[in-house]
Fold this protein.
Amino acid sequence: MVKCPKCGGNVESPIKTWRFSSRKTAKTGEKSKIIMGIFECPSCKARFRAALEPDTAPEERVSIKNMVERIKGIRGELMQTLKNLREKIKTLETERANLMIEIEKLRKVAESRVVALESEVSMLREEVKSLRELLGYTEDLEK
Ligand SMILES: [Zn+2]
């Protein structure tokens, strides 16, 4: 709260605020920043600039007031996120189990195909062998 320089009336809160580092604090090496504000007197409508006390800056007050609400909100969001993640994990685990079953099925199909091909190849080998014998070819002749 500041006093109007024109009529001396109390002005509750500024229309606009901004921060800047003052030269004084810069010289002493402090990093504290001064908050400036533009005020409008409600009784005489005069506009003026004034520095705000850091602890009474509405910006700060609002942020402290909202802090609890924000923490509550963040906690709520986290709980929701955890819930969503748990559901996602559950879905993914089910999907993984289904995929494992499918992979197992495909593996069995592939294995039986290999077995079928192997027996076909050995049958063809036998056929080639008997044809060679029929035509009088021997393993030695071929070499
Ligand atoms: Zn005034």
Remarks:
- Residues 4, 6-7, 9, 41, 43-44, 46 surround zinc ion (CB under 6 Å).
- The chain has three helices and five strands.
- The chain has a mean pLDDT of 84.
